[in-house]
Design brief:
253 residues; alpha/beta; Metallo-beta-lactamase, Chain A; binds zinc ion
C-alpha cells in the first residue's frame, strides 16, 4: 500500500495544505487538497473518494475534481461516507447554489459523482482494499477509517477528540502497520481542542496508549499557526516511531 500525502494540515497558509491522502492510484482519503496538487491525468484515475466528514477542509476539492472530470470527459468517482456525511454533501454543497449537483451530471444514469453511504462499523471493498468506517468524536458526524489490503492495514483517526472504539478495532488488527492520528492544537490550547473536538500532543499520547501496540505513528492535521509549538511538544513526548507527515511524503506499507 502506498500512501501519498497531498495535504496534511489543519488549515491553509502558503506551504500548508488541508488534509488529503492518495492511496495507491485510485483511492482518495479526504479531499482537502487535491486539484491543486495532482495533475489532470492523476485526477482522472481516481475512482473512490472517502470522506471522513463533511467539513470543508476535508471535502471541498470534490467540487473542483468533479468539474475537472466532466470537462475532460472522465468516468467519475464514487464518494463514500457516513450516511449523514453523504446527506450533508448533497444538501449543502451539491445543491445547485454552492455548486452544481454532479450526482445528476452529465446525466442521472451516468453521473460524475455516485454516492455510497456507509454505515458506522461497515466495511466496503474498493480497488482490492477493505475500508471500514468507525464513528469518532468530532463536532459533526465523523468516521475514522481503517484500510486493509490483506498484507497491511492502517488507521486514520479523522478529526476527533479522545475516542475508544477506533483504537479497539486498531488493536485487533494483526497486520496493523501504521496509525495516522490528528493533532490540531498545542497543549496550552487544550480548551480550544476540547471545544472543537480535536487533539493536543498530551491527548495524542493517551490515545496511542489505547492501541497497546508498538506501531509507527504519523501525526497530521496540525494547525499551521501552531505548527512549531505542536512539533516541539510532540518531540518532548519521546515516543518512538512517531513523526509528523510532510507534504508530498510517500509512505509505503
Ligand atoms: Zn479538519
Ligand atoms: Zn473537522
Amino acid at each position: 500500500m502506498k500512501i501519498r500525502v497531498l495535504g496534511c494540515h489543519g488549515g491553509e497558509l502558503p506551504k500548508y495544505r488541508t488534509t488529503s491522502f492518495l492511496i495507491n492510484k485510485r483511492i482518495l482519503l479526504d479531499a482537502g487538497s487535491v486539484t491543486g496538487v495532482l495533475g489532470l491525468k492523476e485526477q482522472l484515475a481516481l475512482e473512490h473518494v472517502i470522506l471522513t466528514h463533511a467539513h470543508a477542509d476535508h471535502s471541498r476539492d470534490t467540487l473542483f475534481l468533479a468539474d475537472n472530470i466532466i470537462g475532460a470527459g472522465g468516468k467519475g468517482f464514487t464518494m463514500y461516507g457516513l450516511p449523514s456525511v453523504v446527506t450533508d454533501v448533497r444538501q449543502h454543497l451539491l445543491n445547485w447554489h454552492i455548486w452544481p449537483d454532479f450526482t445528476e451530471l452529465p446525466d442521472k444514469n451516468n453521473p460524475v459523482i455516485t454516492m455510497n453511504a456507509v454505515e458506522n462499523g461497515k466495511t466496503v471493498v474498493m480497488d482490492g482494499m477493505e475500508v471500514t468506517l468507525c464513528t469518532v468524536d468530532h463536532t459533526v458526524p465523523a468516521a475514522g477509517i481503517i484500510l486493509d489490503d490483506g498484507k497491511a492495514s492502517v488507521v486514520f483517526s479523522s478529526d476527533t477528540a479522545p475516542t475508544d472504539r477506533l483504537w479497539k478495532l486498531a488493536s485487533e488488527k494483526n497486520n496493523l502497520k501504521a496509525v495516522f492520528i490528528e493533532c490540531s492544537y498545542p497543549d496550552g490550547q487544550e480548551h480550544l481542542a476540547r471545544l472543537s473536538k480535536h487533539l493536543t500532543p498530551a491527548l495524542v499520547r493517551s490515545e496511542i496508549k489505547k492501541i497497546g501496540k508498538d506501531v509507527p505513528v504519523y501525526i497530521y492535521h496540525v494547525k499551521p499557526q501552531f505548527y512549531r509549538q505542536i512539533l516541539h511538544e510532540l518531540k518532548q513526548l519521546h515516543i518512538k516511531h512517531m513523526e509528523a507527515v510532510k507534504l508530498n511524503q510517500v509512505i509505503t506499507l
